[in-house]
Amino acid sequence: MLFITAALIAIACSRYAQVLKSDDIDLKISRAFYYYNKGDYTKAGALFDQLAPIVRGTQRADSVFFYQAMNFFQQYDYIMAGHYFNNFVQIYGNSIFAEDAAFMEAYSYYKTSPRPELDQTDTYKAMDAFQLFMIRYPDSPKIPESQRIILELREKLMEKSFLAAELYFNMADYKASITALNNCISEFPDTKFRESILFLLLKSRFLYAVNSIPERQAERYQETIDEYYSYVAEFPDSKNKKEADNIYNDASDYIRDADMLILND
């Protein structure tokens, strides 16, 4: 049985080698798609790479080039896939595969988008590609998925922005934390992290006041109180409500004591 299996494998390899060496374009194309559909992307890729320069300018070029790009995608080589899909869209914009290629270009960039702590160049690249796709193909059935992915990527950018602000807070650079958190809210007002951002902003304002020079403390405690009112108005039932109330009470005590000193002078 083992001998028969080995013999069959040897025959299959021999046939593949013959196809690689063959000058029969039709044979190469049929076998390339055969291997692709079978999931043997290594063999399919070798044949598509051979075929690409040969079929350029012919009626079969777009199908070969599109599946050459798809073959990279199937092998999880998203960088090469994105590059090949981009080239396809530039060259074969009128092809029946053009819409799928444009979507797959954006999707390839999406697959290379890293976790929030890392550089987000590929995330921006994916968002731009999806937005361009939606402009080019406004009636595409892939519009909802494109919109969903864009929202997901925006949340990743939001998370990165929030993590940067949180880092300032942990480093006790409360002024920088306040600036970064306000930028987060301004750029991503509908983020799912909104409550966390506003609560950290409240804490940052309070600690910024605590660590300020005496001449600026009253002003900054008042800003803390204002921030408290904004926070509880939006999230009255927050799990952080007790801590927020404590911050408010401490800030209010300082303001009251400062007012008493002024009256007693």
Q: What report would you give on this structure?
A:
This protein has twelve helices and no strands. It is mainly alpha-helical. The chain is rod-shaped. The N and C termini lie far apart (104 Å).
What secondary-structure arrangement, pairings included, does this model have?
Elements: H1 2-21, H2 25-38, H3 41-55, H4 61-74, H5 78-91, H6 98-112, H7 121-136, H8 143-170, H9 174-187, H10 194-210, H11 214-234, H12 241-264
Helix pairs in contact: 2-3, 3-4, 4-5, 5-6, 6-7, 7-8, 8-9, 9-10, 10-11, 11-12
Oligomeric state of the chains present here = single chain
Q: Give the N-terminus to C-terminus distance in angstroms.
A: 104 Å
The largest pleated sheet is described as: none
Q: Whole-number average pLDDT? A: 92
Order of helices and strands: HHHHHHHHHHHH
Q: Structural class, please?
A: mainly alpha
Total number of strands: 0
The percentage helix is: over 70%
Low-confidence stretches: 1-11
Q: What's this, in brief?
A:
This protein is an all-alpha fold. It is built from 12 helices and no strands.
Q: Top keywords for this entry?
A:
mainly alpha; 80% helix; 12 helices; 265 residues
